[in-house]
Structure formats: structure tokens, C-alpha cells
């Protein structure tokens, strides 16, 4: 048997544990193995990107880094495992599209890294002021499966006043952001951060109610290696003043992390996280019970118009909002509708389904949610979110400040919810929750025993239908109901690895 062939099998199996893909071909082009079955193994490496948290000198930012327990380290036959690590490091400020901002700015030494040393316990770090850089990082070994970092910023005053929360995202090549804006009262920046050692090139497309906006400086935006580029959306188009805009970020080469920082002069500020991939149905989970304004923004990226049925999934069942039971979304155009008095004192999730089940036109969607009235308001955004398939975590929860919403839009679902140990002390607590079909279950009392510091919440489906989840963190300040909502997205802690079968007939 050829040693080269054996080494190829070992290398491809190890690659599969990291990426979920392996191709086994001998040097002469003959196939030496084929996939007969698959198994799931823990990932060996996970990468995340955190954008620049704020430019405000009064900003106070907390990073919380966490890896859940319960997933072992995968060696995938690759030999001796390396010591596990989970580290964040600063990214430089790269050139800014549209002629705004500075270029080549050397990042300030951060007061992070919020380095996890073992699964099961959150680690926090503080980094205040307006010179905190974007961060890129990776976790390996036992710290990689499910590694998550939460970035929470409080800006008590100024144009970006508010509570801004974001789960630092994995780098990718395609992102959708409904509910952005180029309106005169908004300052929306899309942050592009490249975690890799080679440059990336990105494109940004903007779509308003009449279709694609006339734009400039949006194609071929360079994002240098290990750097971040903030782009002010209003500088990219001559058609500024659009209240509802859908942003599409793609890369021509390389990959980036992307998020939109939205600041409204009157309402407050928060991050817009990427929406779920275009699909015929969408769930937007965790609308606060006391929301005073909810605006739905949707976009149909394909060639067909979308006719959507709009429903609210409440703790008592699924209902149709008064006066807003449907939404027509024209192809290539952004549509929006206000949903007044939507929640009526109960946490809920919005469900979008095709009016005609036989015509499931893909859409992307997000909600703009406001709490409070008059000058004491705060804004947050809830993107359409895919169901949790295996496990998902949101870190930086606080006692009496976190609300967990679990929604089962179809069949009844049974899930396990775990509150981790506290960052400064406390024992983890788990609970099995059954969410009835077509309802939303709310948890506010699941906290670690003897909690000190902050903690993470992890959701794991056990049986039944699909489950969607979101966490609301509410930290009122000076009469302003500051809040932020983070949906749970699958942590991709494991990957499918094909089992290799050796065909001795082709081995020399």
C-alpha cells in the first residue's frame, strides 16, 4: 500500500473535522476512498470577528468570551492535540470607502483579550472610550466548539446614545442587512473586518423601495489583511434620505465579518446583525412586551414578487396583527410596514409565511423595534433568524436584566436551556422546557445558583419541531429604557465528517 495514499486519507480526515469537507484522490487521479456514511465531530478551530464598538469617548464596552461544555476535542487522527487556545487580537483600520474617515490607523492596544481558559465559565473584559479597535480571533481544541463572544456597549450620551449589543460573527462571503437607512436622522455604517493574512475585496449593494440605489465606491472595496473598514452608507449613493434600505455585502475574494452600526438622532442606536439567508418563510424572535413601535422591513432578492402572510407568535398562540395581516414585496425592492400596538404587553415573535404555500418566494427580513416614548426612547433590531439545529449560545446575561424568548412556529418543541456558571462565581443550572406548537415561551428566572458577574445562556433542541430563540438585555439608564436583542444562531460546534472506505482494488 502506498504511504502517500495513507497520508492523504489522514490529512483529508483531519481537514473534514475542521471544515466538514474532504476529497480523497491519489496522486495519479484515481479515487482511493469514498464516503459511505457520515458522523459528527467537534470542530477543531473556530474564528470570530468583533467590529469597532464605538467612536464615542464615553462608550463603555464589555467583551464576554465563552465556550459551552459538553463537546469534546476532535483530533481526527491528526496526531497529538495542541493545547487549546481562544484569543482575540486588534485589527488595524484600513482605507475607508467613499472618502470618509482615516486610513492606515494603528490600533490602540486593547484592554481585552477576554481569553477563555476552560469551557463552562464566561470570561469578561472591559475596554472603554472611542479608540477601541476591531478584534479578530480564533479558538482551537476544546475551546473551539461553540465558542462565542458577546460585545456589549453602553453610550450614555451623544448622537450614538444607547445600548449596543452584538454577538461577534464568523467571517463569511455573503451578508444581508434589511432595516438599514440613509435617512438624514440616521448614521449607518457597515463594518467590514478581514481576519485573514491576505487581503479581501468586497462589494456593497443598496436597495430601496424603488429598487437598486444609484451608488458609487461600492464595488471592489479593498479590506487589507488583519484590518477593518467602516463605510458610511449615505456616502455611497446620490439617493440619500431613504428610510428603508436593504444592504447586501458580498466578497469577490477572501472573506470578512460584517455588521451594521445604526444610530438614530432621535431614537438611539444599536447593531444590525446579518439576517438569515433568503427563504420562503422567516421567524423574527423576541419582540419585547413593551415595544412602542415595530417596523417590518423585507426584501425579495429573486426574480419573483413575494406575498407574505404576517402573524405574531405569542405565549397563548399565533394571531394575525390587526391591520397588517399581509405584505407584498416586489422583486428587487425593499418593502416596509409599521405594526402598531403589536405585542400588547406580551413577548412575541413575528412569523412570515408565503400567502400561497405553493409559491414560497425567498425573502430576507428584519424588525426595527423601539421602546419608550418622547425623548426617552431606545432602538434595537431583530433580524430573521434560522432555527437552532444543534446548539446556540448568547453570552453576557445579567441578573434581572435578561429575557429569553423561545418560539416553536410549527410543531411542539422540547429544548434544554442552560445558564452557565457566573463570570465571577456561581454554579450552572439547566432546565428542560416544552414549547407548545405555535407559541412563544418566555424565561426570566433561569440564572446560575449563587450568581456573581454575568452568565451565558445555551439552548439545545431535544425533540419535536423547530425552535427559534432570542435574548433581550435591558439596562435602563436615566429614564431611558436601553435594550438590545440578540437572536440565537447555531454555534456550528460540530461538522459532518465522511467515513472513508478504502478500495484496495485501486491501491498499488
Describe the structure.
- The protein has one helix and 37 strands.
- By secondary structure, it is mostly beta strands.
- A seven-stranded mixed sheet has the order 2-6-4-14-10-16-17, with no helix packed on it.
- Strand 35 and strand 36 form a beta hairpin.
- The relative contact order is 0.16.
What are the salient characteristics of this protein?
single chain, 508 residues, seven-stranded mixed β-sheet, five-stranded antiparallel β-sheet, 37 strands, 3% helix, disordered N terminus
Task: Summarize, please.
This protein has 508 residues and is mainly beta.
Biggest sheet statistics: 7 strands, mixed
What distance lies between the first and last C-alpha atoms, to the nearest angstrom? Answer: 6 Å
- Can you count the helices? 1
List the strand order in the largest sheet.
2-6-4-14-10-16-17
CA-based gyration radius: 23 Å
Q: Name the beta content range.
A: over 45%
Round the mean pLDDT to the nearest integer and report it: 87
Morphology? globular
The residue fraction in helices comes out at under 10%
Specify the structural class: mainly beta
Number of strands: 37
In the predicted model, the low-confidence regions spanning at least 5 consecutive residues are 1-35, 73-80, 99-104, 501-508
Q: What is the element layout, followed by pairings?
A:
Layout: H1 3-19, E1 33-42, E2 45-50, E3 60-66, E4 86-93, E5 123-128, E6 134-140, E7 148-155, E8 162-167, E9 174-180, E10 186-194, E11 200-208, E12 211-212, E13 221-223, E14 227-232, E15 245-253, E16 257-264, E17 268-272, E18 282-287, E19 291-299, E20 306-314, E21 317-319, E22 326-329, E23 334-338, E24 348-354, E25 364-373, E26 376-383, E27 392-397, E28 402-408, E29 413-419, E30 425-427, E31 429-435, E32 439-443, E33 449-452, E34 455-464, E35 468-474, E36 483-487, E37 494-502
Parallel strand pairs: 4-14
Antiparallel strand pairs: 1-37, 2-6, 3-5, 3-7, 4-6, 7-8, 9-15, 10-14, 10-16, 11-12, 11-13, 11-15, 16-17, 18-24, 19-23, 19-25, 20-21, 20-22, 20-24, 25-26, 27-34, 28-32, 28-35, 29-31, 29-34, 30-33, 35-36
